[in-house]
Amino acid sequence: MESIKIADLFFTRSSSVLSHGIRFFTHSMWSHIQIIVHVDPLAIVSADANGVICRDIYPEEWENHIILTCPSLTEEQRHDICHFCFQQINKPYDYTGIGSFLVNADWNKEDRFFCSELAFEAYKQAGVELQKRVDHAFVSPEVLYISPLLERVDVERKNG
């Protein structure tokens, strides 16, 4: 059985109105994506309403989740991804970037992130393009979920 590693991606969805809205407008199965930056105990970097933060995984996030890994990543790339994520901590959430999905125009702000944009850019900075020919303004959780470079990690829940 594959084990969780740093730089793995933790996808979630919930029954909230916000989750349904994100999934509807981005044509996604998942509404949120986070990057695992520590394994024992599990910690993630997340770009959400509070901005880019490092935190534990919330208990309710375990209810509907999947963890995907990029098996071709080297240990150095995994550390580079996490390092990039740590450098983004305290940057604000990219609310206008989310508007890009509604108007089909790039409204992204360079100094802000939404969740899938952060994951996409972290991997790109480490030399890995999870999707080719996709503009960062339109990277949804679903776009990353279907990346041919990612595989499912089947593991038991680690904490909570």
CATH topology: endopeptidase fold (from Nostoc punctiforme)
- Secondary-structure element order, as H and E? EHEEEEHHHHE
Overall SS class:
alpha+beta
Main-sheet strand order equals 4-3-2-1-5-6
Low-confidence stretches: none
Strand content: 15-25%
Q: Round the Cα radius of gyration to an integer and report it.
A: 14 Å
Helix content: 25-40%
Number of strands: 6
Number of helical segments? 5
Commentary on this structure:
This protein has 160 residues and is an alpha+beta fold. The protein has a single domain (9-152), classed as Alpha-Beta Complex (endopeptidase fold (from Nostoc punctiforme)), CATH 3.90.1720.10. It is 30% helix and 18% strand. The protein is built from 5 helices and 6 strands, in the order E-H-E-E-E-E-H-H-H-H-E. It has helices spanning 17-26, 75-87, 95-103, 115-125, 141-145, and strands spanning 9-12, 32-38, 43-48, 51-55, 65-69, 151-152. It has a 6-stranded antiparallel sheet, with helices on one face.
SSE topology:
Elements: E1 9-12, H1 17-26, E2 32-38, E3 43-48, E4 51-55, E5 65-69, H2 75-87, H3 95-103, H4 115-125, H5 141-145, E6 151-152
Antiparallel strand pairs: 1-2, 1-5, 2-3, 3-4, 5-6
Helix pairs in contact: 2-4
List keywords for this structure.
5 helices, alpha+beta, 6 strands, globular, 160 residues, endopeptidase fold (from Nostoc punctiforme)
Q: What's this entry about, in short?
A:
This protein has 160 residues and is of the alpha+beta class.
